[in-house]
Design brief:
Length: 178
């Protein structure tokens, strides 16, 4: 019995072989990367950064806005901004005005216990700010001293904390709506 081979079938076999070779190369690349990750020390920094040339992935334009070019000094730790309190909408004592405020503050990023303590006190932080603004009479609300408000709230926040201190507060929004 005579058998004929279709030439178009050979093109399909070549295509499948190419796919198999590419897949084998990808598997070898994954194995090599995994072995390298196991051998590499835990303290080693990243091999490359995407999105910039500076430390932390900062581009040249961003470096100009940061003192010292965005570089960390020896012994200096990174700083995060805690904004977990969110935006608060608070009615004042006379129920005539609404205060809209968002409060944030910096903290050391490498202080994990303090970070966890901050996260555990979000409800208390919100309550302190809500009670402070809700108890303000309308006349004090109109001539509000922002620095004094920050100092008062900061004092109450720090009274809650045991593992660290908040140095300063930022008001992202502070609007009084009649």
């Amino acid at each position: 019995m005579k058998r004929e081979i279709d030439v178009s079938g050979n093109k399909l076999i070549i295509f499948y072989r190419i796919i198999v070779v590419v897949m084998l190369l990808l598997v070898l690349l994954l194995i090599a990367g995994s072995l390298y990750a196991l051998i590499r020390s835990r303290d080693a920094g990243p091999l490359f950064r995407i999105g910039g040339t500076g430390r932390g992935g900062q581009g040249e334009a961003e470096k100009e806005d940061i003192p010292d070019g965005g570089a960390f000094k020896e012994g200096e730790s990174a700083v995060n901004i805690f904004s977990g309190i969110g935006k608060l909408r608070i009615q004042n004592a006379a129920n005539t005005d609404v205060i809209i405020i968002s409060i944030s503050f910096p903290y050391k990023a490498d202080d994990r216990p303090f970070t966890e303590e901050l996260a555990s006190h979000i409800g208390e932080f919100r309550s302190i700010a809500t009670n402070y603004f809700a108890n303000l009479p309308k006349d004090k609300l109109k001539k509000l001293d922002e620095e004094q408000v920050k100092a008062d709230i900061l004092k109450q926040y720090n009274a809650l904390l045991r593992l660290g201190r908040i140095e300063t507060l930022y008001f992202g929004d502070l609007m009084i709506v009649d």
